[in-house]
Amino acid sequence: MNIFVACELGSSEKIIIQNNLKKHNLYFSNQVFNKIADNNFLRCEIVFGNIPPNWLVQSSKLKWIQLESTGFGEYSKLRKNFLKKDVIITNLKSFSASQAAQTALAGLLSFYRGTDFFALLKKEKKWVGDPIRNKLEILNNKKVLFFGKGSINKEVSKYLKPFDCKCSFIDSHSTKEYILNKLRLAEIIICALPGTKRTKMLFNKKMLDTFPKHSILVNVGRGDLIDENHLIEKLKNKTLRGAVLDVTSEEPLQKNSKLWNCPNLILTQHTGGGYTNEIIDKVYFFLDNFKRYSKNTSLLNLINPSKGY
Length: 309
Fold this sequence. Notes:
The chain is α/β, with parallel strands linked by helices.
């Protein structure tokens, strides 16, 4: 089989793939993604990694794409192409759940225990200490509202158990009345939703204005879920306690983005899924799925193009 490796790999990761797929033709991307598809890509039936969406419509041989990400958003406009050509697409759903959950937890603890503030004081060589002690909070018994019942939110809820947090979940079946009632009581709102037409700008001005003044918003889902301009306004006016954003509508952020200078905001720059062995583990996930593909058995993490997740 002809396999196109689109993701950027180091020499050790390439050796792992080559040793495991000796009987197949491997084509490694030069990481230059022009509008016209790479000739090597066009001869392949399998792709490992994220390729430009416009390449997909140029291929007549493609049968399966193993994304190196969880998100499917950039390919959402090509759903009909996937369905028409019977292209199988799989992602890394659940792969980053633990890491993203720990990023969410770290952000929350940073606000409640003041570590982000203390980091600034260190830079300014200011010792404040005692006056801050009685302003610090604890995570215990907080009311947490999760948007989405996926692997990330489930993992976060596990981490919150020792803190005796009161967790509630919002899903596609939740009524507006239920959502609003839960929001008014929430102290922490955690979002890990996929990017779809239904979720785009879900947290608009009206929704954000429902958040309690003392609440913290955490987004480890998609960057287009939030009205960032209104979020910035609320954080500046202190009508929202804080926000932890692992994802933003624009990535990377431009230097003139208002988010850089926004108070009470932690930006983790879409690193929520990252860890030391991330790339190697992605390679092994692909190889495991490749074995399934070769045996014509069900693949892990199949995406439904119609739903977008």
